[in-house]
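Can anyone check this?
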Amino acid sequence: MLTDLGTRQYLDQLAESRDVDRLYADALAALVRMQTRGGNAANGLPPYDRSLLHREMELMPEWFLGRHLEAPPDPGERAMLDRLFDFLSRSALAQPATFVHRDYHSRNLLVTDEDNPGILDFQDAVRGSVTYDAVSLLKDCYISWPVARVHGWLLEYRRALIDAGFALDAGEDEFIRWFDLMGLQRHIKVLGIFARLFYRDGKPGYLKDLPRVLAYTREAAAHYPETAQFAAYLAARVDGGFAAAQARAMRGAHGQRAGDG
């Protein structure tokens, strides 16, 4: 069964700074319910395993580096990326596994008068890392907030998980680290996905969101010693060519629209 959830996207409300704390509190409460009551359902879902985590991250060197920036990694850079992907997948798999919606963000949440929020796009759900959906929501690819505010919401969510009986031994600092590294995995993937949506699927609208996703990636990579080499790579090989790549893609998008006309 499907319910008519209306048309009020979370993104529209959040962009107007309307009821921000309430909307996030509702979304995180719904997430806690899914993760603490959906154990049996999660056991029947595909695992968010090393193979899938790596397959997602491989989209970045192919579509973002190779196609968008026209700067495929050389052998040394490729080896660095392999080490990074291994590290991020190990971090993700060290977390408790639970139900993962996999796209739990402001464009898939609808503001409803009862039982807020309405939740869409759950067909790709898997069983995986506890912080993944919190990353999707709080480090949203379509809207961003100051780090201190994000971490405040995150720690409220952690306390709610524990209060609801979720088996979570991680302290606050470790939970934030899990969240940041899970976010790095997700945003590496999304850099590739958004580039692919333009070059393969002819959808230029996602180009405008690439700077936000790259900023998340840069920020998380710079924060941890294990990812410092990747942060240096972004500064040396990505940041300098990103503006030109965006301009080149935008010209291509305008040309596509003119041709369509």
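Reply from J.R.: I decoded it. Residues 228-260 form the longest helix (33 residues).
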